[in-house]
Design a protein that fits this description.
The complex is a heterodimer of chains A (289) and B (318).
Chain A: H1 18-46, H2 66-76, H3 79-110, H4 116-126, H5 135-144, H6 152-155, H7 162-175, H8 178-186, H9 191-220, H10 223-228, H11 237-245, H12 253-273, H13 275-282, H14 284-288
Helix pairs in contact in A: 1-12, 2-12, 3-7, 3-9, 3-11, 4-7, 7-9, 8-9, 9-13, 11-12
Chain B: H1 3-12, H2 21-54, E1 57-58, E2 66-67, H3 71-77, H4 80-112, H5 119-131, H6 134-144, H7 150-157, H8 169-197, H9 201-209, H10 214-242, H11 246-251, H12 267-277, H13 281-317
Antiparallel strand pairs in B: 1-2
Chain lengths: 289, 318
């Protein structure tokens, strides 16, 4: 994959010899292999019989046992129920986060009001507060509301977040031109109508990115669902996976990996389709600070 | 959420003198940002104060609360398991973060180099681990780190004896740190890369004309200009390392009660098991407060070191 490029790197600054070029690519390719290998390995174990995981030398070929392994997943847990639960929770949170964060980000970007900067810095500062500090009281609130073991406990606290506001503000500040808002005012549009009809269509790309990032975050979340969900029919996919692992009657890795692979695949596809956006979003905190 | 405002407007139309355009637009802005502040007040701010309050009480989350003063802090600090969790968190934090940041920086420099092609492909590949859930990462690595797993096979191949990655004091820490590193190295490399790409090329041009060699360019241009990124990544990684929970919880959970095993218990695991397994909300709250103080101390050390670094480079330039 890299060999054809050696001949063409004439743009390289002088002094970079053939040797260092090779070393560069070897290191980068090794790094890339380390990044991908666990995904491939997941699939190898998922498609071979249950003894394959500790085969010596390690088995590296894909087998034909996937459906048998996956059958054992279905015998042990309601895997598709857990997938649906995760899909439901992640979608609800995402819709809400995108709406409220866009609204707030737009207000911070395009409105003038007292304490605007102080409030914005406050939003940013909340990013650095460890969430574990609020776990106990939040749990107690949920218990008081009788929301333990319900999806409300997962959805409501996550409905809007600081990162999303930050992200939407950065985008709206440059993408929404003040003249557009002004002309909307002159046409007699209300504030929300201007937001909805003029601002939102311009900032859709940032909203989509926020949506993807947020969906992935909620999908992958483990700590809070673990604390709040009690009944196995309410488990999200991450809890369901962990439960498979903690079964004591001998670890059936073929079964575990077939479930893990199936749960990881949707996100992997979404990531590969939208990788440019996802990477831009996930690294934006550092780039823009 | 915005509806009440729009609905209120016709009513207030009569008092036009009060509802100036400016007032109305300010109220709209406050309404637009209010959901965050309301939610944060309930699930962020109030819990922080309540956690501090709770740390002075004995409570099982059901019965009445009993004021016990500093006793929870005494109980926690005299519990050897807490100190084990503290040292474990620090050791795994260092093992997982330090090599990770160095490798990430190297990868970023290589990716940024003019002779690297397929930059976009490498970026995507290096980023892939980060989108995987921690549970999935832990499950995959637990197969690699099994007694007869691939890592031990590789070690044997190199003439090194097998390590007990799922029970040894160091074995468990190495396994968990590796999982953390695998998930975050590429992510940090991409952040460093965007930092490197933000450095204007003509700075290097000018330095070359002034006769600066590669090492000098690295020391006096790249590193100082990359500093904000290094500070940010170090800060985020430190905070993340102090909150380590899912990897040890899942990795050591296979034997039932395993997540409080001494080899891998972290401060958050300790907190979790105090509250949700033992029902000691008071000591769990005290642990949370101490975790928060430790987080602040480490962030301040971080800032202090980076400010000193700034002083040094400033002196060097002058």
């Amino acid at each position: 994959m890299s060999s054809s490029s050696w001949t063409q790197s004439s743009k390289a600054p002088g002094g970079a010899g053939w040797l260092s070029k090779t070393a560069f690519y070897v290191l980068l390719v090794v790094g890339a292999l380390i990044s991908i290998f666990p995904f491939y390995w997941m699939f190898v174990i998922a498609t071979n019989d249950r003894g394959a995981v500790f085969h010596i030398p390690p088995l590296l070929t894909i087998g034909g046992e996937f459906f048998n392994n996956f059958q054992r997943v279905l015998e042990r847990t309601d895997f598709f129920q857990a997938l649906l639960n995760s899909l439901f929770v992640s979608s609800m949170v995402t819709v809400s986060v995108v709406f409220f964060c866009t609204l707030a980000g737009y207000a911070f970007a395009k409105y003038e009001f007292p304490f605007k900067n102080a409030l914005f810095y406050f939003v940013i500062a909340t990013l650095f507060v460890p969430s574990q500090l609020s776990v106990l009281p939040t749990y107690i609130i949920m218990a008081k509301l009788q929301w333990i073991d319900t999806y409300r406990a997962l959805i409501v606290p996550a409905m809007v977040n600081a990162f999303g506001i930050f992200w939407m503000r950065q985008y709206a500040a440059t993408a929404v031109h003040s003249e557009l808002i002004e002309s909307g005012r002159i046409d007699g549009g209300g504030h929300f109508r201007i937001f909805w009809n003029i601002a939102v269509p311009v900032i859709t790309p940032a909203m989509a990115t926020l949506g993807i990032l947020n969906f992935m975050n909620v999908w992958n979340d483990f700590f809070w669902p673990l604390v709040v969900l009690k009944n196995s029919e309410h488990f999200t996919i991450q809890i369901a996976l962990q439960q498979l692992f903690s079964n004591r009657d001998g670890l059936d890795y073929g079964m575990i990996m077939s479930a893990t692979f199936t749960a990881t695949l949707p996100l992997l596809i979404v990531f590969l389709l939208f990788s440019r956006w996802v990477i831009a979003g996930l690294t934006s905190g550092a780039v823009k600070s | 959420m915005a509806e009440p405002v729009t609905a209120a407007r016709p009513v207030s139309a009569g008092k036009r003198s009060f509802w100036t355009e400016q007032r109305r637009s300010r109220l709209t802005a406050y309404t637009f940002i209010s959901p965050f502040f309301i939610l944060f007040a309930i699930f962020g701010l109030y819990p922080i104060f309540f956690t501090i309050y709770l740390s002075f009480f004995k409570w099982d989350a059901l019965g009445p609360m009993t004021y016990v003063g500093m006793k929870n802090y005494d109980l926690v600090t005299s519990d050897p398991l807490f100190w084990t969790s503290f040292t474990n968190t620090l050791i795994m934090g260092v093992m997982g973060t330090v090599p990770q940041l160095i490798i990430a920086l190297l990868l970023a420099v290589m990716l940024n180099s003019a002779l690297t092609r397929f930059k976009k492909t490498f970026r995507v590949l290096f980023f892939m681990p980060n989108i995987t859930s921690i549970v999935a990462v832990t499950l995959v690595f637990s197969t690699l780190f099994g007694n007869n797993g691939m890592i031990n096979w590789l070690l044997n191949g190199m003439g090194v004896e097998s390590m007990a990655f799922n029970s040894g004091w160091w074995g468990v820490k190495i396994a968990i740190s590796t999982m953390v590193m695998w998930r975050w190295t590429g992510y940090n490399a991409i952040i460093f890369l965007s930092g490197l790409q933000s450095i204007p090329l003509d700075l290097y041009e000018a330095a070359r004309i002034d006769g600066a060699n590669r090492r000098q360019q690295l020391l006096y241009i790249t590193l100082p200009l990359l500093k904000p990124f290094i500070v940010f990544v170090t800060l985020i990684s430190t905070i993340g390392a102090l909150q380590l929970f899912t990897e040890p919880y899942v990795y050591l959970g296979q034997s039932g009660t395993g997540s409080t095993r001494e080899e891998g218990i972290t401060m958050v695991t300790y907190l979790y098991s105090e509250a949700f397994r033992n029902g000691f909300f008071g000591t769990a709250a005290a642990t949370a407060v101490m975790l928060f103080i430790i987080t602040i101390i480490f962030s301040m050390i971080n800032m202090w070191v980076s400010n000193r670094m700034e002083g040094d480079t400033g002196g060097g330039k002058a």
